[in-house]
Each structure stands twice: as C-alpha cells, then as structure tokens.
Queue: 3 jobs
Job 1
Amino acid sequence: MERMDQARARMWLSTAVAEARAGLAEGGIPIGAALYGADGALLGRGHNRRVQDGDPSMHAETSAFRAAGRQRSYRGTTMVTTLSPCWYCSGLVRQFGISRVVVGEAETFHGGHDWLAEHGVEIVLLDDPECAALMRDFIKDHPALWNEDIGE
Amino acid sequence: MERMDQARARMWLSTAVAEARAGLAEGGIPIGAALYGADGALLGRGHNRRVQDGDPSMHAETSAFRAAGRQRSYRGTTMVTTLSPCWYCSGLVRQFGISRVVVGEAETFHGGHDWLAEHGVEIVLLDDPECAALMRDFIKDHPALWNEDIGE
C-alpha cells in the first residue's frame, strides 16, 4: 500500500466531519467516521449514537464499520475518524486488520493510535482545527456525557 | 472487589453458554456473553450476530454490552464470555473499565485476555469443555465464516 497523500486524507476527513456535525445536530456526541476501501470507495460512514439510540456500543468507528456490512477482508482499507480512536475502536482496527487510520485530531483525547502504529497500522494524524474545536466545545458543555462515553 | 469463586463464575458462564447455543440454533457463530453488575444483577446478554443480522460489529461481548444500555460506570462489572475476547472486545473491556472477565475457554482462540490482565482486569479462565467443543465443531464445519469473524 502506498503512503497516503495529505490532500486525499483531508478530503476523506471531510466525510467524517460531516458525520460529526450530523451527530451534533441530533443532540449527540460530535464524533464521526468513515471506512474507505482499498480502491478508494466509501464502504460505510457513521457517527456516535450513544445519545440518539441509547446505544453505548456505537462509537463513530464502530458505526462506520457496521454500516459497511460484512467484508471478507479489510486489507488496504482506511478508517477515517475525527478523533483519536479509543481502546474499543483501536481494538476493532487491530482485530480486523484495517490497514490505515486517518485521525482528525488527538489533542482533546489521546486514544490507541500509537499502539496501532506499533502493530503496523499506518497512522495519518491531521491536527485538524475544526475537529478539535468541535470536541473542545462539546466537552466544555457536556463533561458528564463525554466521560460516560469513554468510561471515565 | 473480592476475588470471584469458581461456583459463581460457572453459574454466570451458563448464561453465556445459553446465548452461544441460541446463536448456533439461528445458524450463527456460537459465541455468547453476559454482563453482570457489581451487585450480581444481570445487566445484558447477547450473542454474535454476524450471520443473523449481517452485522460484523456485534460480537458476543459487544452485543451484551449494548443490551445493557447506557451505564454511568462499569466499575465492579463482570463480562462473561464463552471464548477469549478478541482485540475488539478486549478494547471494549479496557476502555470502559469493566473490572473482570470470565472466559469460558481460550483453547480454540487466544485473544487479548493476557493484555487485559496486565492492565489490571481480573481474568477468570475456566477451561470449559462445552465451550471448547462448541467452537471446535463450528470452526471445523465453517472455517471461512470463522476467519471472517476474526478478520483473518
């Protein structure tokens, strides 16, 4: 797999940001994700659904993974997420052999992306100011909800 | 939290085994799980739903976690599973601070339970012959489906 260029990473991130904004508009936690295939096709997209569905298992990444349905292999796929993936979502990436993770930002929450890099996953960290602002504002306004979502 | 006695662990495992058997009867992958509260109350139970719902995100443990709904804290809870948890489900346990994992067997699949133990999770490994037989038979009859479920 060739290394990703930043322009494509930012284009794909915009799909995840649109999901995060949709979640926010629904009164939810503003984290979005998208799973892209090895050929660049969008396989699935989604956002955190804790508030909307009362479902703690649907983080942004698991939601995008679920939307992609059954896949025979995740080789060459890219998980794009507005926020550094928590251990739950990092475990998803490792178990299923997702090849690359594009991370919008890891400033408001530092999840398992270093661990994934150690285990051979390509990490593209974008330090995106829009992603960081979305989370910073949300955490300030809803600290208890955010802590619930990360088990703290 | 006091250490778990084996009689209680085996009693709780029977709930997970019943889930695994229900999944098998539906034509699915025979892995079941249950989440118990600190007070011993059953919070949620479920089984792998890849085949039944075409949903790769519903492993047994995530299914039980989902069925338990939103919880403010997982301190003192126990995840009981018929099979050693994969990285995805191990990440779930670590992220949400689930205190203990009862594992039916780790012979047919060795997941992340050692990693969890290193990170302070109490692991009760039961080496249950019924759990092992369920998986051994399933893997023999449906190797491709099993490999799909663990991303291999």
Job 2
Amino acid sequence: MNMSGPSADTLSRLADAAGPAGALRPDSEDLARYLVEWRGLFHGETPLVLRPASVDAVAAIVRIAHETGTGLVPQGGNTGLVGGQIPDMSGSQVIVSLERMNSVRTVDPLNNTMIVDAGCTLQTTQEAAASNNRLFPLSLASEGSCQVGGVISTNAGGTAVLRYGSMRDLVLGLEAVLPNGEIWDGLSGLRKDNTGYDLTRLLAGAEGTLGIITGAVVKLFPKPRATETAFAALRDPQAAVELLARLQDASGGLVSTFEIISDSGFELTLRHFEGAKDPLSHPSDWYVLAEVTAGTDGWLRTMLETALGNAIDDGLVLDATLAESETQRAALWALRENMSEAQKLEGASIKHDVSVPVSSVPAFLQQATDAVTAAMPGVRPVPFGHIGDGNIHFNLSQPIAMDPQAFLDQWQAMNDIVHGIVASLGGSISAEHGIGTLKRDEIKTYKSDVELGVMRAIKAALDPKGIMNPGKLL
Amino acid sequence: MNMSGPSADTLSRLADAAGPAGALRPDSEDLARYLVEWRGLFHGETPLVLRPASVDAVAAIVRIAHETGTGLVPQGGNTGLVGGQIPDMSGSQVIVSLERMNSVRTVDPLNNTMIVDAGCTLQTTQEAAASNNRLFPLSLASEGSCQVGGVISTNAGGTAVLRYGSMRDLVLGLEAVLPNGEIWDGLSGLRKDNTGYDLTRLLAGAEGTLGIITGAVVKLFPKPRATETAFAALRDPQAAVELLARLQDASGGLVSTFEIISDSGFELTLRHFEGAKDPLSHPSDWYVLAEVTAGTDGWLRTMLETALGNAIDDGLVLDATLAESETQRAALWALRENMSEAQKLEGASIKHDVSVPVSSVPAFLQQATDAVTAAMPGVRPVPFGHIGDGNIHFNLSQPIAMDPQAFLDQWQAMNDIVHGIVASLGGSISAEHGIGTLKRDEIKTYKSDVELGVMRAIKAALDPKGIMNPGKLL
C-alpha cells in the first residue's frame, strides 16, 4: 500500500471509474458522515468517497487501486461497532460505499432464495422476503440502515441466531470484486455444491479484507404462523441452560429466542422506564425471555405451558408468564430491549461482547462477576444477552459514586479480566461485532499463532499489495 | 512434490513417526484394502500406509513429508466415490489412514456439541449422540464405515440435508495438521465467534488438499419424537416443487426428507424386488417420498393430511398415502432406497450427481431427458433423488438390447450433455460426491478461471510444496 497517499492522477482516475455522481471530494459537505462511526468512537480521513452504481464500476475502481497500491475501505450502512468501516487518520485510504447498489435483483420463492445487491438494507431484504410470503430471519437493532454487504462481511448475528444461524449461515453465494480487480460471480443458489473450497464463507466475516462484496444469494425460510413468548424467573443460570435444553427437546428445536437477564439489569429497566413492570410475582436473581415459533398453531402454547410447568415442579423455574396478546408480548420484549438504554441512564458502562459454550455460561457468569467485583469494589455487573448461543453481553455499570471517566479509564483492565476468563473457558472475545480496529491488537493475545499465520497467508495470497481494508482484522 | 518417490530413509522416518504398529509396508497383506476404492473404479500404489494414533503422530508425519516433499493421501473409511482417498499409480504417495484415531472425545449435551476423532465412523458418532438423547442428523448409506474426517473433507450430504444441512454446516470447529506440520487447534464449540476467517469451513470440503483433519466439534440437535412419512403420486415435477413449498409452509420448515422418484425407476423397483408393491391406486409419471419430523406429537399427522388433501384438491397430487406403522414406513423408504440396486439389475448405468436450484428441477428434468434420448434412442433415464435440495441423481439405464460396454463407452458423451444443461441452469456437476480425481479435469470447464484462480492461490499459500493429497480437486 502506498502510505504517502494516492496521487492526484490516481484520485482522478478512481473518481472517473466510479461513474457519474459516483465520487465525493473532501470539499463536499456530504463527506463527513462517511468518516465517523455513529457513536463517535471511530474517526478517519479520506481523500475520496466513491459510490459506484454497478459491479463493473467497483471492479474498475479496484483495478486502479491494485495498480497504484491505493488502500480501499468498503463501507455499508456505517453501523459497525468495531471501526471496520472507517478509514485511518492518514488521509490515504479511499472509501468505497455500496449504498447506490441497493436493488433486490431477483426473488425465487420456490428455491427459497433471493439475490440482493450489497447495498440493500437489511430491512429492505426482510421486506422483500415477507412480500413473497417468506422469512429472512436475521434481525438487528440497526436493520433500517445496515446493509447486506456489511452484514455479510461482519457475519452479523442478532436475536434469531439460535434458530437460523448467523449471516454466514444465511448466504448461499456471493458476487465480489477480488483485490486484483477481478469479478467473482459466485451467485449460486444451490443447496448442494461440492466443487471446491467454500469461498463464500471465506469472504463472509472477512471484514472486507479479501475483496468487496457486491451481491449475495440469501436463504429464505417459511414464515412462522404461530409465536409464543414466555418470561420466567429462574433458580440460577444453570437452570437457564437446562430450561433451554428442555424447551428445545419439547419443541423439536423451535426455540427462536432465549435471552437471559440479570436481576441487576431488570431492576435498572423497571426503575428507568415508565410503564415497565415486573410481570411475575416471584423476585429472582435471573430471568429469561423465551420465544418459540412454528408453522402450525394450536399445539405450541400447550407445549410451552407443559414444559414450564414441569420446570417449576423440578425447581428450575420459580415463576413464569406467557404473553396473552401482542401488547403483552411487546411489553415482555421491552424488558430485554431497554436494557442497554437503562444502563446508559445509570452512568458510564464498560462492555463485553463475548461467547462461551452454552454449558459454560453459568461458570463464566460466576467467575467474571467475582473477578470484576474483586478488582473494583462497587462495580455493578449487568450481564444479559443471547444465552442460547452462549453470547453474553457482560456489561459493567460504574460504581454509583465513581467519576464516569475514571471508571472508563479502567476499560482495558476490565476487558483483560473478563477476556481472560472467556479464553480459559474456550470462548471468544468477539462473539458478534468482529475485530475491526478495536480488537486488532488484542486478538493476537487470544488467537493461536498457527491460526493467525493461516489467516495472514490467505490474506497475502489474495491481496499481496494489502489494498483491501488495510489495518483491519489482521 | 518429489515425483521420484520418497527415499528409503524418508520412508523409515515416516514409519517411525507413525508410532508402534503404525506403518504397513507393501509386503503386508493388509495393504491391499487401502489401495482400491470399494467399487473397484479407482486403484493406486503406495510405498507405505501410515496409521497414526494421535494428532502428535500425524504432525510428526506431516513435518517429515513437508521437509522431504513427500505426497500424502489422507484416507478415512475409503468410501468416497470420486477417488479422492486413493493414491495415484506412481507409488510415490504415502497413505495416512485416520482409522486408529476413533474415539468420541467428549459429549456436551447442554452445548449440543460433541468432539470426535476424525477416524470415528459416522455410525459411532450418531450412536454417541443418541445415547445422550441427541440427534446427529447426517445419514449416508456408508455410515457404518465412512469416517468423520472423510465426511467433513468431502462435505458429505445424504437424505437430511434439506432440514439440517451438509457436513460443512454441522461442524463448529476442527483440529487439523496443516501442510507445514503445524497443529491447528480449532476445536471451538462456539455458536458465535467473529474473530477472523472461517478456517473450519475452508478445510471442510477441501478433500484433504489443505491439511489432515484429526478431530472435529460437531453440532447436535434435539431428537425428534414424532415422524410422519408420506408417499404421493404427482401431476408432474413442477407439482413436486410446489408441494414441497406447501409442506414447508404448513410445517414451519420441518420437512426432513423430500425425494422424487420417476415412474421409470419406480417400475424397476417393483419389477426387481420381491414384496415391493405400489402403495397407491393411481399410476403417475412422478412420485415423492416425504417425511416430516417434530419434537411434539399429535399435530403432525393432521398437518400432513390437510396439506396433502389441499394439494389433491388443487390437482398437484393425484393420490397419497401415509405410513400407518413402522413396517409401512420401511416399505415406503425401500421404494426409494432400492432404486440404485434395481437399476443395477437392469444392466449398465451412467450416473450423474448434479444439482440445480430447486425451482429449476422441472426444467432440468425435461431438458436433460429430451437431450439424452435424442442423442441415444432407447436410453432409459431413471432420475431420482433429493429434490428438496435440488440434487438429482440423473441416472441412465442402457437401452434394452444394447451391449453394456458400448453403452458405458458413451459415459463422457452423456455427462457432457447433462452437465451442459446443468451449467446453463446455474447448477453443479458435483452436488454431493466431490471432485477427487474423477472430475478434476472436467471442473475446469464449468468453474470460472477467477474462482479456480482463488482456489489455487489458497492452495499454494498453505501448501507451497503441494504435498497434501496431490492430484486431487485442483
């Protein structure tokens, strides 16, 4: 990569390659929004934002970048949480936004697939599926603005991974421009194709370091017709893990959501949100929000009531309620969804996006709580999240009287403690959000040299000039 | 790779590295079974068969091979259909059998995972899951002898892919020895881990060309408690595709098997198998065997009866029956499972393991039938298979009076016709069985130079000396 930055001639050629209205220069007032991550945590500089409207334009851009050694930063909806979509501060990296490639190309309901441009928002993708009587199951808080290409590149998760998998599992094929500017048409809609290496899943989750995804074949599913939602007070986290196994057994694997909530977080939500109230009569240290969906109605509620009743008899569950209406369902979901916001109202927080094997979640919660409270008396752990996938957002609210900045200065120290426990349990320090620039150095501590070596060898083989999203992931 | 073959010193060092009783020389009468594929279609020669009993022994072997440029051929249960597990005829390639690494290492029912050695048979894996009240869903005809390492390396499929995916989808993590002899411990049991490239799925389906898989974390599922099996006569293949969509919709995606059978194959089965009889009263050109499974009983049969009844009313289905007992279920399955054998009794056959998008199966069947009968009057197409995955075994039985060898001499000509149609419909010339040596040349016609270029770049980066399963896949 050319560290001194692209020449005026290179920038001019790149702008031409992006086509009419395809380039924004630093004097454009529209440029700012590409340079800062939405929470303001990551900033960058760029000499040029390119907005190609076709795969051929993307290829022309990448060929010039390859020839001139110009670093490219692919950007989708700019909703990523680890800085992967933001250029560095050198002002030498060119942003390639996919936002003008935003069409649903084709929908094939009988093959349960859809081909979409990388710049389609997740919501557009969901809506196109729904209007064809199908479900595209991936759902995220940012779905109105995040784009499919970014969702694939970061292998995004969300609340339905337990049932349907992460984005990497939901993509059958890709179209991408490789680091040498070649277009790879891998838009296969096949369920079975044993003809070589799985390049689709290699590019998925690669955070734009192996090429620019321009289109994708995504899997569709039957739309569920029946949904039952339960909120339960638990004996302890071990009871949560066992209840999940029972519900999966009773339903035949139809649990779509299984989220744990600590009493500490539950209390914050009740305190800060008007109208939020405890739907149960039995206080507890731990709660779960569980949802089960099916194609056929009539048996789901009975199954759930029976399973919860047995779990109460066996002492796993202390109390439970089932939503009786869509309003009640929304109220139960709000108890989970308002956790982050409630925590924000309580002062500064230090966050962890970690996963461990589901069976190790109880040990993780105990060990991590003990360790952080020993290191910082008064700190308030507010763990919650996708226990069904082993993915816990082990967040810490500041001690009540502490200075917020003094607390935040302990971010790395707290991360080190929690991530060490995660590693000892065979877990991951980035379950959902990726590496980007945020965890690029830290990952070297937790991933083996062997694995990093393989990743670097692949990167060097496909992108010898290091032009694709330089400084991210590796 | 050293084409002149390993020296006596190298062979001796390799034998030592394999540990006590870990090496078989050409003078051993046990050697023969490693050198021939079970149908006798692929033969090879070797100076040495190694049977290491630990990952460390495998690593020691690969380090010596890397140093000396010795080609290694990993072998599992030797059940592959494309020659990937058989050395070439040069006598220079050393076989590494994983058969002595055959333990189930750990089972974690609450994480729904199991760690198994690469040399475990598929059946051992299924049984270990079942004895922990879980399902390992992959099922193949060869499950008593095929081994997990081979099943992963070939990304094997089978009859439950529609519901649970292929082997690549069923593996969460791997342990493997890389071509430089390093051990990669990627035995992660995590559902969510966004920390870099997906090496697990890169090695899965790589046919042993990127390393030797020694262990795997496989996914487990709840055991279904209810199963309903239907056999239906259809209006035409389009009706099959539409019926599948209706059953998936009605069941919420719980169809586990959906196999199409042509009348030509059905008749062969009825003719050649004593006791086989048509369970329906309405003859048809096309039939399907469909199975739906669920965790809860009591609603599944009603759902299936209603869906089939509606399909009869709408003219998609001409007649249908549901199994009333396990005996009846077995009889319906036999109609499908005896197809290959029935075809064998009818003379020579030319086979195709192809897939197209599910929605394109009707067009494929029509075009392929027209084309082969135009090219060879009297040829009898006997298409059947996993229509739910778009994977059709488009087999051809010889014209009745034709000389079998004269018919088989047309194998490549028939393949060219059928594969050309498959390619025009966006399909794959190897849906399940892989490339191996059988389709290594042909794949160059059907895969883009761009994609082959990426595959070769990855291969060269990870195995610069080309010692891992030389001459296979690429």
Job 3
Amino acid sequence: MVLIDQDGSGPGGSNQMAMMVLLQSPRAEVLGITMVSGNAWEPEEVQHTLRMLELIHRTDVPVVPGAIFPLVRTEEESKVQQQLYGTFPWYGAWGDLAATTSRQPYHGPYVVPKLAEGEPALKPLAEDAAHFLVRQVHAHPHQVTIYAAGPLTNIALAITIDPHFAELTQGIVIMGGSLSPQTGDPEFANNPRHEFNFWFDPEAAHITLRAHWPRIDLTTVDISIKTGFTKEMLGEIARSPNPGAKYLAAYTGEFYYLWDELAAAAWLDPAIITKEEKLYVDVDLTRGPFYGDTLSWTSANKPQLDLQLVHVQQDLDLPRFNKLFVELMKEPPQPGSPVN
Amino acid sequence: MVLIDQDGSGPGGSNQMAMMVLLQSPRAEVLGITMVSGNAWEPEEVQHTLRMLELIHRTDVPVVPGAIFPLVRTEEESKVQQQLYGTFPWYGAWGDLAATTSRQPYHGPYVVPKLAEGEPALKPLAEDAAHFLVRQVHAHPHQVTIYAAGPLTNIALAITIDPHFAELTQGIVIMGGSLSPQTGDPEFANNPRHEFNFWFDPEAAHITLRAHWPRIDLTTVDISIKTGFTKEMLGEIARSPNPGAKYLAAYTGEFYYLWDELAAAAWLDPAIITKEEKLYVDVDLTRGPFYGDTLSWTSANKPQLDLQLVHVQQDLDLPRFNKLFVELMKEPPQPGSPVN
C-alpha cells in the first residue's frame, strides 16, 4: 500500500510518469494521491492529475488537494533574495515555465490554464491532504509507505497534526536533497547541496527528516542524474495499445532526468539500487544563501541531536531501472480498475 | 615581488614547504612573511617560521606577527555549535593536533611548546602584519602579489585599514574554498563547500573576496586533492646537499595534499594550471551550519552585488607541478642571502 504525495508537471510530464510507475504496477496498491505545489501550483496540478487518471483508466484512485504554499518560504521573499544570493535555474510554480519547458508562462496560484489534454470530469476529494494522509495511515497501521516526491509540506502537516503519523507508516520514500553530484552539469557544479523539493519548503523537509519513520529512503540529485528519459524509450512505450502508453505518446515531451520515477521504481524493486549509504540528513533552516540546502553527516561527525538514519541511494542498475520503467508505462490498467 | 601571508604547521610541514616554494625560487622576491593563526596558533607559528628561515639560510626575510584570533568566529562558540551542526575532521589550532598529526596536543594561544628543530635566535619584526602589508604595498605600488594561504584575517585588516590596499597590489593568490570536489575522500563527500581557511575566519574571507584586486587566483580543495606529497618525492629532495632540503629531510613527515604548495607554484609557473573557470566567489556569513562555506556563481546567476571575478583553478599538469616543487625544495639559498 502506498500513498502518493506529489507535485505535478504538464500532461505526460515527469511527475505524471512517476505516479504511473506506482499506478500501473501490479505490486502497488495506491490508496490515494495528495498534491502539493512545487513544479507547478497545486490547483493546476490537481486538474492535470485528475485528467491523467481518466485517460489511463484509474478513476478509482482519489486525488486530494494539498498545500498551495510552503510553510515559511514565500515567493515574494525569494524574489528579493535573488538580488543577494543569486538565482537558480528552476523555481517550479514560481518561475516562468515557458522559458525552459513547453508549459505555460508564469501565472498566479489559483489560475488554471486550459488543459491541452482536455478538462477532467472527475473531481478531487473534499478533504485536505494532511487529514487524508493521517486517516489512511490510521486505517492501515504499519502497512502504508509514503512516497513523497514533491516539496514535503503535506507530510510535515500530517506529522504536526499527529505526532504518531510517521511511526504508524511502513516508511517513507523521498525524492529530495543533493550531496555532491559527480557531474559536469553546471546546474549542480555551483550548488552541490541545492535541490528544488527541499529548497521550496525547507521547514517541511526538516520536520519530515526528523520524524521517527520505520525507514527513510532518499533519492537525491546525485543518483537521479544517472538516469534519463529518451526518445527511444518513448518509442518503445508508444508501441503499447494500453491507455497509459497512449496518454504518454500523445502528451509527454520532457526528456530529462527521471528523478521521481527512480524513487518510485526503487520502492517497487529495491534491487535497482546497487549502492546506498546510511547518513543522517537534515536541511539548513538558516535564512541565508544556503537556506533549504541539504546537510548530511556520518555517525562519526553527527550533531548531538535526535537525527534519523536515512538510506541514501548512491548507485543503480540502470538497465534494470529502464526496463522496469518502460514495462510499467506499457502496462494495462490494474485488474479491477474501472474502464472509462 | 610577493608577500607571504601564511599559517603554519610543525617543522618541515606543508605550510613551511609552501613558503619554501617562494623563498627558494630565483623568480620570487619575498618581501616578508606575515603570520596568522589557522593550522596552529600564530605565536607558535612565528617561532617555527623564524627557525625555518635560520635553517634554510634566509634570515634576510622579515617575519611579522599577525592575527591570533579571527575577526568574528570564536573557538568557544564553535565548540558549542558542534552539538548543533556536527564536527569537522580538522580544526587547526583549535583541535587536538596530536590526534591526527605528529604535532603537539591542544594548547592555548600564547603557549609555545619546545621546538623539535631548536629555538630560533632570530626575532620577528616589532610591527603588526596588517600595517606591514599596507606599508610594503605602498612602497611598491602595483608590483606586489599577495600570496595568502591561511585564514584571511591579516588581509581583511589591511583592506579595512586602507581601502586602496587591494587595488595597489598586482593581485592576490588565495588557497581557500571548496566547490564540489570529485573524490571518494569522506572528508569532503559530506561537506563539498567546506574548507578550513574560509571556515576559520569567514568574515575575513568575505572582505578579501569582495575587494577590488587587479586579479584573484584561487586554489580550492577541488584541485588541491589532485596533488600529494610522497615518500618518493622526499627521497629525491633528500639527495640535495642544500640547507632547505636538509631541513625537510630532518623534519618533514606529513604526506598529504599539497594545497598551499600548489597555490605558490602556480603563481611562479601559471602553465601548471591547465584548466580554470572564472566564477564569482563569496562566503556564507549566515551563522548556521554552512557558516564559512564557499558560495560561487557564474555571470548568469550572480547576485546583483559588486562581486569580483575569481580565477578558480580546476585542473593541473601534475608532473610539471611535482617536478617544479621537488626542484625548488632542492635549491640552494637565493644569491645574496646571508649564510647563517
């Protein structure tokens, strides 16, 4: 059983593919999708996700509206801070998405532009993400894994509402953080500790990383940049007659790192990860140039604080991951799923 | 013409070898050595440096006492902060040197333990480092390079005393900072932006990096860890009958990265550096876990502030560097040097 907590991209984008890894696997029971602002504003993401579920024939999975804004960081302050601390290449909902993707130019939080893939008839639940998360975990104690691949605002809210939330899960899988990517990609060379999900809501990442989960698995920038979505992979997926593959063939177009997809796939098949290190991980909450950057320690140099050991993924069996990913994108809807 | 601003190690240690790179080169005129606490306390360093000058027959070079404490960071606060932010493997004068080197256990700032290489008869100048630096640069306008291979306290004091100090030099060579070392050495994997000289006096590093130097060359951790002092190199040096080589053969024993030596050698022979990048560089002054860590930007993402472009060294011709380094260690005292 898994609860998907996710930000969203445009139709068929990376975040949608990551959700499909779990939605199309016969080994995962998705109890629901909670949404959070990050790569886009949450209200727009909800509509894209509802429409995706219609198109891939999974309208049985509830979509639950979550946090539109981070706990503390604000769009306005971050703009002013750029004058002092410089700029990053990616601001998600706060940036001009048209500048670097095929998506919409900047718009405000409550604006939902017309959907290229069509408007959904499906509606989200009339419950907020944090309470839905708490309710589901209490309904299935010690059986649910949280897959959290966006900013961690909803997860931090659930932890704060219910201090036993983390302990009652089976664990959490997080896409977030960056340690020391071994790459020539200039996006990371000058910011080895910067990663968008932790940056967007540093306080939420801190709250989440400090909670007493039975297990924490972390997919960082370091391992994510060893993956990549290619036109060849899309060509293979497009050969499938199933609705998920048809949806991707029609709408996807971001050939980039498979960050969230890897986090999801590694939960389904842990053998994808060939090397990991157990580290204590936290986030800088000092409101300076490194605000939201990743902190990590070994047991030899950790602070004298109640920090949690994290399974930090370091290397992968790339052919095995690519094969599983492409196979899942080609899968038919799970048995018992309604046909739209 | 060069002014050496340097912290110090034990007899024949890395900092001593770096000074010898400049002292033994026929291409450098060393106007003086200003000392600063860092790898050891300044009063102890002064004695080791005076004795080194005696043993290598360069008592013509004045040694000038400099800052014993950083501008803002304190030993006491840093100890308390370890509980919150964890520990680093190296604290220089503030650590127990006996734990990781052949040097003395921890002692206070004004204690000078007995020197293994003998006590110097030579005395330091009765002038402080900052004023000496200002006076020398005014005496030789636009002709002096500052070689700064320790914490930058003395340099920051000189800049603050005389706002034209930096402009009147020919440039500054700094050993400091860390961007994203590509290494498996665990010392750097969990702290890619941490480097001791910047960390020890962050405010001084910030003042220095913001000043209007004609040119700034930076030797970071990233390139330094591509070098290393070996027993083979020492064996080759020990074949020389000259006093510098004899001093090293008798006292050196740290087979580690050649950080400061590279900064000095690359100034003498710029062809040692095969790759550099021009970046804007600064230091985090936020008093959190990244206090003193290196900030860097390209022109594409820099803050809207008066930052200086730095020549950040990235790769080197290692055989060329090793050859020059070993040759210089074997050199006789410069012509005209007094014979002790």
